[in-house]
Amino acid sequence: MSNRRNWLKQIGLGAVGLGLCQFETFANTPPETYILPDLDQSPILLRSNENPYGPSPLARAAMQKSINNSNRYGWNLSDELIALIATKNNVSNQNILLGAGSTEILDLVLQYTALQKGNFILAETTFNYWAFPSEKLGLKKITVPLTVDKKHDLPAMLKAIDSDTKMIYICNPNNPTGTICDYEQLVSFVKEASKKAIVFVDEAYLDFTKEKSLSNLVIENKNLIITKTFSKMYGLAGARIGYAVASSSTIEELSALKSSPNLSISVVSTAAAMASLNDNKFIQQVHEANEEVKKYTIDQLTKLNLTCIPSHANFIYFSLDNYKKDFFKQLEAHNIQGTKIYEENGKWTRITIGTMKEMQRFIEAIK
Question: Within a 10 A sphere around the Cβ of 266, how many other Cβ atoms?
Fold first, then answer.
């Protein structure tokens, strides 16, 4: 604990340093004022579900202060970050594995699954970029369609499990649809599915909801792995910080696949993550801003006769079936970067929720 206090003072977050003063300075400041000048200009980036307000003020200060420590490896700092994350998730340090964003954790679990051969199951449509190397790793991918209202079809996914199934992936809330699984139904699914295979739950966007994490279940369930990230709510996508929450034995097995477990994120990124966990006011403001701008955007899209799926994240999934113009050309003409068509049937696309100013420009662009 004394090492952590000393380090927090070094980066300006101790009681005698920058922390309390800076926290009070930004306590009543709208999150749009946090935007760095070079992030508040065109093009408008509404493609990757990034937080347009972050990093938080405390994280920025910590990153700047920690640069001088970049000549040293971050073993001790990683241990400190793990301890903070473990406390946040009500687990022990042995239940946490750090990664360079949740993407590294996703890749690692895919490799871990490939050691056992067989197949893995995921929804169609969901976040699946991590699954592209699966065939090269000797795995078969099985997809299960979403329900009509764009939710995971948990009963169908349970039925899809066979003797060769090694892993089932659930993105909750789901990307790109923004839908969320009912907590009790998901707990029941995990209980049954984990008897036969690993259940891998991606909670990248759960911070945008009031729903409970499944992380408390990993203590007694060796076949449950949770992945979380600092990329979204905490605004640290470019800093690349994610982590796995799993049973201690599973963490040991995953760690054995890395040459240097918990050392793939920089000292600067570690400082940002630790500071972010102390900046509760910023998180509250981002959550409130996201909800306000999301409601505005959905209302405007609905007025344009575009069907939207209720979103539990920082993006919106909507249909272009009734849109008469070329949506993507409209975005390009106004220097806005969106995504693509995820489902041809209904022409479903996704847009990230930016600042109010950005979404007003988005709506004007597609009118």
Answer: 19
Q: How many CB atoms lie within 10 A of CB 14?
A: 16
At residue 20, what is the residue type?
A: L
DSSP of 83-129: HHHHHHTTS-GGGEEEESHHHHHHHHHHHHHHTT-EEEEEEESS--G
d(CA 17, CA 24): 13
Instruction: Count CB-CB contacts under 10 A for residue 238.
Output: 13
Output the pTM of the full model: 0.90
- Kind and range of the H or E run holding 215: none
DSSP 8-state code for residue 241: -
List the one residue out of 176, 181, 205, 211 whose CA is nearest residue 313: 205
Give the ranges where 304-342 is alpha helix by DSSP (H): 327-333
Look up residue 208 and give its DSSP letter: G
The H-or-E segment that residue 361 falls in is helix 356-366
Distance CA 28, CA 81 (A): 27
Residues 5-9: contacts with CB under 8 Å, at least 24 apart? 7/76, 7/77, 7/80, 8/274
C-alpha distances out from residue 38 to 34, 86, 108, Å = 12, 34, 34
Contact 72, 78 (CB under 8 A): no
Kind plus residue range of the DSSP H or E element containing 244: strand 242-246
Determine the Cα–Cα distance for residues 165 and 139; give it in Å rounded to an integer.
10
- In tens digits, the chain (367 residues) has pLDDT values of 444 445 444 444 433 233 333 434 444 566 666 665 444 557 999 999 999 998 999 999 999 999 999 999 998 899 999 999 999 999 999 999 999 999 999 999 999 999 999 999 999 999 999 999 998 999 999 999 999 999 999 999 999 999 999 999 999 999 999 999 999 999 999 999 999 999 999 999 999 999 999 999 999 999 999 999 999 999 999 999 999 999 999 999 999 999 999 999 999 999 999 999 999 999 999 999 999 999 999 999 999 999 999 999 999 999 999 999 999 999 999 999 999 999 999 999 999 999 999 999 999 999 9
Q: Which residue type is seen at 33?
A: T
Which is it for the CA torsion 287, 291, 297, 301, positive or negative? positive
